[in-house]
Amino acid sequence: MNFLKFLISGTLIRLIIKVIIFFTFFVFLALKTLEFITRHENHEIVPDISGMKLKNAIKLLTDSHLRHEVIDSSKFNPKLPPYAVIEIFPAPQSEVKKGRKVYLTLNPSGYRKISIPDIIQITRRNAESMLKAVGFEVGKITYRNNIGKDMILEIRYQGKIIAPGSVLPKTTKIDLILGNGIRK
User: Fold this and answer.
1) I need a labelling partner for 154 at 20 to 30 A (CA). Which of 66, 72, 111, 176 fits?
2) What is the mean pLDDT of the chain?
């Protein structure tokens, strides 16, 4: 019975009100302190530096009180000059704090180099699909007297015979010499 009287008495209600006021004040003070420590209202806008050369992009970021870090890129864009900025993180026109690090992805100086697969003595259809799968383009196709109809006899690049395993830039056009099915 005494416990029930205590629950509905004014003492408990006053104690609950004091706890709520103290808790509210403590949360308000903590939030204001965090705003001050994290410089909540001190922002910079990330400039749009897409397509700019690295040197110019770094100068613009420095002028905007932002730091930078270059991330290597493997995707070459032939429409942009070498070492131009392809991607930016955080995105351009984003609000960030002063001194924030902006990550830059650059356009490489050219297509990456890849190895030519061994397509000698393979049919034209299979050879073309293998070359396209790794990123090469099929150039001129010529035929030579050989019993193997549509079999790859030679691989050429710029008129010179090249061996499987040679390394060439991606998207290079490779010429193929095939057999025409006629015995010599």
Assistant:
1) 111
2) 87
Name the pTM for this structure.
0.54
Q: Is residue 184 part of a domain?
A: no
Tell whether 94 and 144 lie within a shared domain. Answer: no
Residue numbers of the domain that contains 163: 113-179
In sequence order, the β-bridge partners of residue 156 are: 161, 175
Using DSSP bridges, classify how beta strands 101-106 and 67-71 pair: parallel, antiparallel or unpaired.
parallel
Does the structure show a pLDDT above 90 at 127? yes
Q: Is the pLDDT of residue 94 over 90?
A: no
Indicate whether 144 and 169 sit together in one domain: yes
Q: What is the pLDDT of residues 136-163, one digit of tens each?
A: 999 999 999 998 898 999 999 998 999 9
Closest CA to 152 of 169, 115, 127: 127
Residue 74 is predicted with a pLDDT of 66
Q: Which of 90, 106, 122 is the last residue of a domain?
A: 106
